[in-house]
Write a structure and sequence with these properties.
Elements lengths: L7 E3 L16 E3 L3 H26 L5 H4 L9 H16 L6 H12 L7 H19 L7 E6 L3 H15 L3 E5 L7 H13 L2 E3 L6 H4 L2 E5 L16 H9 L8 E4 L20 E5 L12 E5 L5 H6 L13 E3 L6
Parallel strand pairs: 3-4, 3-6, 4-5, 6-7, 7-8, 8-9
Antiparallel strand pairs: 1-2, 9-10
Helix pairs in contact: 1-3, 5-6, 6-7
Bound molecules: ligand LZDS7PUF and potassium ion.
The site of potassium ion has 11 residues, from strand 6 and strand 7.
């Protein structure tokens, strides 16, 4: 006698639908409650497995913690636990700013509500960069420094960091091919020269033979990537940096790796620095950065940071920078 054939049964036809099973077209073979129970159990254990996987992956790419939202209603309490933990961590994750947000926040800090001056912020930003260099590249091994300064405030941070590095015992040269006529920058350059920084008239050949570190203070968050080109003279400067052997002479980027789109990242396939020192709060492009990552620019008032939900890590003691290498993705 032939066995009656088992008919596929759409799960939606069952009177009680356990959570997570009611996707259209979900099919259970056989109409016994045992089969449904077995499948139910299988799905619940899947909830736990997937919620754990997304929880762990979230440490590498934090937006994956958001995926765990769907397990908040799981029947498995461990899956719900991992979902809640993911959301807590997600909330604690450092915020990465867009170009627009960075500009807006800078204007706010310099406006009447917070009352900072540009000199103040730049001085603290520069001090953070020199402090991070001192930590990561000690002068016993990395004494000779070349700083390349751009036309804006990122270049100003470079001028300041260079002066401070001389104070820390480094031997520093600056290449500053497009100088601002703004009084602040003239004073910063004067102070650098008086402190003993060498001012170069052109970018030296054989950078790796002469220098132990290159500081990239060319462009910050106002770099305009929309035209798709880097204008002279920085096109050729960045091209030189693309070919530097960073195993010998690492590049330290101030706030943004120059040439990267602030919101998107390394779209032009230019150099990837060994060390990035983000200022105030990291920018979106730093989400794809895999090297050593420090945060500096310790000038944001606590009220400001909480209003903008920046979730910045605390700076240890009186330090001017903090290592955020593993908190960034
Ligand atoms: N609150 C803070 O976070 C602080 C940040 N600081 C630092 O300041 C920079 C932002 O400085 P900003 O002056 O706004 O701009 P940049 O330094 O990024 O330079 C922009 C100039 O670069 C030139 N540019 C832009 N796009 C291109 C391009 N495609 N090709 C060539 N050149 C380009 C342009 O200059 P021009 O003279 O050519 O017009 C831009 O004007 C921030 O990142 C921090 O490092 C402060 O130090 C402290 C406060
Ligand atoms: K830079």
């Amino acid at each position: 006698m032939s066995q009656p054939q088992q008919q596929p049964l759409l799960y939606q036809q069952q009177p009680q639908q356990p959570y997570g099973y009611n996707q259209p077209g979900y099919v259970v073979y056989g109409n016994t409650s045992e089969g449904a129970h077995h499948s139910d159990h299988h799905h619940h254990s899947k909830d736990v497995t997937y919620s754990i996987i997304f929880f762990i992956l979230g440490f590498f790419i934090s937006c994956l913690w958001l995926v765990n939202i769907k397990y908040l209603k799981s029947h498995e309490h461990s899956a719900r636990g991992f979902a809640i933990a993911s959301l807590v961590l997600m909330n604690k994750a450092i915020k990465f700013l867009t170009q627009k947000e960075s500009t807006f926040m800078d204007e706010l800090l310099l406006g009447p509500k917070y009352g900072f001056t540009s000199d103040q912020l730049m001085e603290l930003a520069g001090l953070s960069v020199s402090s991070a260099v001192l930590k990561v590249y000690p002068k016993s091994e990395y004494r000779n420094v070349l700083t390349i300064c751009g036309p804006g405030n990122n270049g100003g941070d470079g001028l300041i960091a260079s002066r401070q590095l001389v104070g820390f015992g480094y031997n520093v040269s600056i290449y500053y091919p497009k100088r601002s006529s703004n009084d602040i920058f003239k004073r910063l350059l004067l102070q650098s020269e008086l402190s003993g920084v060498h001012i170069l008239s052109e970018l030296p050949e054989n950078i790796e033979d002469k220098y132990n570190i290159v500081i990239d203070a060319i462009f910050g968050y106002s770099f305009n990537a929309s035209t798709g080109e880097i204008r002279a003279p920085f096109d050729s400067v960045i091209n030189r940096l693309n070919h530097i052997n960073q195993e010998k002479t690492p590049i330290v980027s101030v706030d943004i790796p120059s040439g990267w789109d602030v919101d998107v990242g390394n779209v032009k396939n230019t150099f990837v620095p060994k060390l990035l020192v983000s200022l105030a709060s990291p920018k979106k492009c730093a989400q794809s950065f895999k090297g050593t990552h420090y945060l500096g620019g310790r000038f944001l008032p606590d009220a400001f940071a909480s209003q903008w939900e920046l979730n910045l890590p605390p700076y240890p003691g009186s330090e001017q920078c903090v290592d955020i290498t593993n908190c960034q993705k």
